[in-house]
Amino acid sequence: MTYEITTLSQRPQLGEQVDRLSQAAWPAFLHYTDPIHWDSLFSTFADYQIFLCAPADKVIAVGLTIPFIWDGTLKDLPASLDELMERAIFAYNSKQAATTLSALAVMVAPECRNQNLSATMLREMRSMAVSHKLHAFIVPVRPTMKSVYPLTPFDRYVQWRRVDGAPFDPWMRTHWRLGAQSLQVMARAMTITGSVAQWEEWTKMQFPESGQYVVPGALQIVSINRQQDRGSYDDPNIWMQHPLTEQPLLTGFRKDEPTRH
To answer: Could you tell me if 138 and 81 are in contact, meaning their C-beta atoms sit under 8 angstroms apart?
Structure first.
C-alpha cells in the first residue's frame, strides 16, 4: 500500500478528520473525558502529530504524540494521561528541553485495518523521536483484547504470554515485535465518571441497581451507585518503551512494509 505521510503542522487542514477516526476507535464512554490540554496537540504540538493519507486528502491513520521530560526511571513515569499532558505543557511553557516522546493514540480507519498500519505508525513515531533528538520513546498501551477478560486483574492480564513467548494481547504483541519492553502498569490512565443516565446512554445498557458491571469495551468493571447517581470507571494502560533506532525521516511517500508474524 502506497501512502503519503505528513504532520499536522505541514497540513493543518487534516486535523478536522481526527474526530472521524476517534469515533471509530474507542468505546463511547471514552469520548466524554479527554485529558487536560488535549487541544494543545492540535496547536502547540502540531509538529508531533502524524498523518497517513491515501489519497492525499483522506486521512487513513493518525498517530498522536507529545514530548515531555522523563528521567528514565519507573518512579518518574506519569501516573495518568492528565499528568503526562501537564508535564508536557510545563516543559514547553518553561522552555525546558523535552527528553522523551510519548505516544497518546494510534487510530486507523476501519476500512484500512489489518494492513499493518498501526505498526507503521509506531515506526514513524520512533522516527520522529530520533529526528527531534529525543532520548526515549514510550507508549501508554491500552491492550485491545483486555475487554474480553474484564474480570481478570489488569496486572495479571498484561503478563499473559503465548507459547512462543510473545504477549497474549495483540496490541501489546505489535509493540513487542518492534522491540518494545513493558515498563509499568498505569492503573488509572483515564478516569471516567458520569450519572447513571449518562452511563446508560454511553453503553446502551440499563443499570437497575448499584453494583459492579461488565460493560462492552471496558477493560475492567464499571461501578454504579444509584444512590449517588454516579458511575465510575478507571481505564488502565501499561507503559512500554521502544528502542530508538535510526529510521527514515518524515517526508514524502512511503510503501508500507508488513510486520513479520
So the answer is: no
What CA–CA distance (Å, rounded) separates 46 from 38? 12
> How distant, in Å, are the alpha carbons of 30, 77, 190, 247 from that of 83?
17, 9, 10, 29
For residue 200, tell me if it sits in a domain.
no
User: What's the mean per-residue pLDDT of the chain?
Assistant: 92
List, in order, residues 6 or more apart from 226 with CB less than 8 Å away. 196, 207, 209, 210
Contact call for residues 162 and 133 (beta carbons, < 8 A): no
Strand, coil or helix: what is 231? Answer: strand
The owner of cell 476501519 is: 110
Which residue in 135, 78, 138, 129 sits closest to 102, CA to CA?
Answer: 138
Contact 49, 67 (CB under 8 A): no
Kindly report the pTM of this predicted structure: 0.91
Residue 241 C-alpha cell reads as: 518503551
Three-state DSSP class for residue 176: helix
Q: Where are the beta strands (DSSP E) in the chain?
A: 2-7, 49-53, 59-68, 100-108, 136-141, 181-194, 211-213, 222-225, 230-242, 253-255
Reported as a single tens digit per residue, the pLDDT across 173-217 is 999 999 999 999 999 999 999 999 999 999 999 999 999 999 999
> What is the domain range of residue 123?
2-186+237-255
How many helices (H) and strands (E) would you count in the chain? 6, 10
Supply the DSSP symbol for 162: -
Backbone region of residue 29 per phi and psi (left: phi > 0; alpha: psi in -120 to 50; beta: other values)? alpha
Q: 196 lies in a domain?
A: no
Residue 229 amino acid letter: D
Question: Can you tell me the distance from the alpha carbon of 174 to that of 85, in angstroms, rounded to the nearest whole number?
Answer: 25
Domain count, the chain: 1
pLDDT (tens digit per residue) in 105-116: 999 999 999 899
